[in-house]
Amino acid sequence: MKTLKIIKIGGNIIDDASSLSAFIELFAKLEGPKILIHGGGKLATKLATDLGMEVNMIDGRRVTNAATLDIITMVYAGKINKNIVVQLQAKHCNAIGFSGADGNTIVSKKRPATPIDYGFAGDIAQVNTAVLEVLLTQGVAPVFCALTHDQNGQLLNTNADTIASELAIAFANTYETELYYCFEKNGVLRDVDDETSVIKHISTENYQDLMQQRIISEGMLPKLLNCIYAIQKNVNKVCIGKPEMLSNPNANFTTITK
Amino acid sequence: MKTLKIIKIGGNIIDDASSLSAFIELFAKLEGPKILIHGGGKLATKLATDLGMEVNMIDGRRVTNAATLDIITMVYAGKINKNIVVQLQAKHCNAIGFSGADGNTIVSKKRPATPIDYGFAGDIAQVNTAVLEVLLTQGVAPVFCALTHDQNGQLLNTNADTIASELAIAFANTYETELYYCFEKNGVLRDVDDETSVIKHISTENYQDLMQQRIISEGMLPKLLNCIYAIQKNVNKVCIGKPEMLSNPNANFTTITK
What we know:
The structure is a homodimer.
Chain A: E1 3-9, H1 11-14, H2 17-29, E2 34-38, H3 43-50, E3 57-58, E4 61-62, H4 66-90, E5 95-98, E6 106-110, E7 122-127, H5 130-137, E8 141-144, E9 147-149, E10 155-157, H6 160-171, E11 176-182, E12 201-203, H7 207-212, H8 221-232, E13 237-241, E14 254-257
């Protein structure tokens, strides 16, 4: 089976022009089928502020009312997505931008309004890989923003980490799937303040020990559980770290395996 | 040869929610391969105004500085494009949104800064149909916004009418191509104030007579020349009129043929 690389980049890479352009260069050079998923960064909040809108967050999660969904659609699917695509094209990587509505690729359900009403937030119900597989075969790299749809005409704001893991899981039957979460740290750290304290290997067997010993920081927990879930659903390999892990096998990063 | 329908909708359809939803319903029902191109409408100007930016127009053409290009990218490729795609999906039409950067489909050159500097405006240099053909074969309907790229990382604002005619021309060797310009009038009118005065047929032979007799209004001239150019470049049929021409052969509209 061929290997498919699914790579997610977070806000810190997107918000910094030089980090983004270094990442673009790196991604463009990766051989074989690949999919990119990008988060939103601070640009949506900036545009909302510039338009005099209030940004409403609960526990670090954005509450997406209709006006906020408009902003997100403009920033995620418009500005960020097209800027990534146009930069990849300049590096001879034939990218095509996607939301989950495009090609009906990612169908989600609006999150129930109780106990907390997050507005137009969607939880993924189904991933349709057919169109994506055709494009991957043609050497095209799909680039996803964090929007999905409900098949009834509604776009929904969806967590980019989850989009990445659900895409990886959906392709696990047809490819050897590798899932990479790129962010600003070297990986899962024993001590959040010490970049050299990377836990190099986490398995489905030892992650609960690490959790019980409270070695995993609270901020890392949802990301790690996402990773473990992907591994349990037959994704071959999940890595967390800085983008350099994609090109340098000697780099410091965390690998999660069965 | 199979028939490919290439349909362009203008701002007046996009700006009005009920016109747009009627059009979406109509487009979704069209059988066979089809491509949609949409203009921008007034939303980009509204967002620019809301952000306190000046909108600079010369002879009805937008001057695209860097900030304006950002706005256009957000509104055209983000808000309008994704809203059309999500509504088409709700009507079971498997749409995928495109700018000319996506799939490297439309390459353009920045317009020279003399005699008038339109900023980041692009004139189409090349259309690459390979990826689009693969998608059309899969039953996917590409939906284009009016942005192209220069292959060096620069998005460029490009006339939507021209995108439509250049796409039709590029496909003329592989499909019987039909090009439809949908707008708010019944077609090319003998008297701009009389909707019943539609000129039903214009040919490459009689259009110059119509121009010399000054029967074609000034506003219609660039659109008509675009149509004549497409016909001369082997597009099979070009029509101008209201969207109903797509479903009702007895509707009043203008057909341009050899």
